[in-house]
């Protein structure tokens, strides 16, 4: 399981205790239902929902946060290892091993 730390000393109280290990996603579940399209994918670290990024027309990852108050999403793009905390507006990076 990855632990997270806020980048550049920004405080984030939401990074601890996240239960979902980030991994790539294949589709934005909401875009598939509505016939939309996406640019990049984000995975909710509270419930594993995959939604599209804010560069996508429908911004489903942000809509999911607004509907659920699940605070942190991670990139669901292959080879990207970062997360975003909506309430703290903080970039989160994987903590070094042992932290």
Topology (elements, then pairings):
Blueprint: E1 4-6, H1 29-34, E2 41-44, E3 50-52, H2 60-68, E4 72-75, E5 83-85, E6 90-94
Antiparallel strand pairs: 1-6, 2-3, 2-4, 4-5, 5-6
Characterize the structure shown.
This protein has helices at 29-34, 60-68; strands at residues 4-6, 41-44, 50-52, 72-75, 83-85, 90-94. The protein is of the alpha+beta class and 99 residues long.
Helix proportion range: 10-25%
Number of DSSP strand runs: 6
Query: What class do helices, strands and sheet pairing give?
Result: alpha+beta
Total of helices: 2
Low-pLDDT stretches: none
Q: Order of strands across the widest beta sheet?
A: 1-6-5-4-2-3
Topology pattern, helix = H, strand = E: EHEEHEEE
What brief labels describe this structure?
single chain; about 100 residues; alpha+beta; six-stranded antiparallel β-sheet; 6 strands
In short:
The protein is α+β, with helices and mostly antiparallel strands. It is built from two helices and six strands.
């Amino acid at each position: 399981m990855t632990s997270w730390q806020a980048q550049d000393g920004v405080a984030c109280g939401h990074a601890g205790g996240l239960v979902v290990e980030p991994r790539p996603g294949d589709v934005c579940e909401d875009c598939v239902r509505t016939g939309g399209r996406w640019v990049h994918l984000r995975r909710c670290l509270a419930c594993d929902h995959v939604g599209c990024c804010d560069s996508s027309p429908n911004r489903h990852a942000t809509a999911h946060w607004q509907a659920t108050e699940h605070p942190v999403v991670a990139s669901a793009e292959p080879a990207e290892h970062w997360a975003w905390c909506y309430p703290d507006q903080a970039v989160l990076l994987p903590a070094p091993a042992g932290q």
